[in-house]
Amino acid sequence: MKKAVILIGIIPLLLSCIFITGCGGGDGQSPSSKPQGKVVIGVTLLTRTHPFYQDLEAGLKEAADKNGYELLISTGEFDVAKQKDQIADFIVKKVNAIIVCPCDSISIGTSIKKANEAGIPVFTADISCLAEDAKVVSHVASDNVEGGKQAARAMIEALGGTGRIAIIDHPEVESVLQRVKGFEEEIAKADNIRIVTKLPGGGVKDKAFKVAEDILQAHPDLNGIFGINDDSALAALAAVEKAGKLGKITIVGFDAVPEAKKAIAEGKIYADAIQYPRKIGERTIQMISMYMMGEQVPSKVLIPCGLYKKEDAAKEK
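-> structure tokens emitted (317 positions)
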């Protein structure tokens, strides 16, 4: 009789242990429950010097405030090593999620993988991660392929379907790869337009200016330049002006930042594919909110681009 009493006392304890063990789990990509306390999100931007990222950051902040999230915002400033240190710091701080705008789409993969191993969900904005072994919950960006096609259509229109053009590239960044892909695909439809060179300009004015000068010297019969962002397009404009070829070479850019819009209004740049970075920031926070609530999150969200030309500048006056 005494043995039976002991067993009766032990059985509930065993069942309790089994139940607790069975409640664990989660692979770091699907939350097992809603986070307790304030949600803290680590953000590492590509840069803060560019108006695009200033607007993207504003979109992130506005949406985060509405959701009651705290943002820890840093910036890699095109230095992937610096960005890796920032992600490592977020992991140490045990943030609830990380948003990355990669400085290098391949190299950043090792840091994203470490966040995966720590069970912290990662989201990318504007620029995606191309490392195969790194897991990203959702990527939010402009539809860069279509944006590149719109830029190409503007170039074809400006040149009347005939000419020799160059591309100032920045192939380290996935979003640029996409817009160049779209540009080249659309230009290929114009039988009498030829891309004579494609050189990396780093996505910054000083380097892109030197590249533009080299292009103009190597191709004196050039008719057009596509800059993969407005730093590249404005650098091309400066080189064209210095060479005394303003009005002879068509420039098409990407972003439509205020300085580029001014140049378009003045007829110095023909057109820009225009992005909506504030929407990218807002939608990224929305994806995190959905994830935190245990909802299904799309792996990719593309924001349509537009085209900004001189007539659009006239409407803004």
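The first helix runs from residue 2 to 22.
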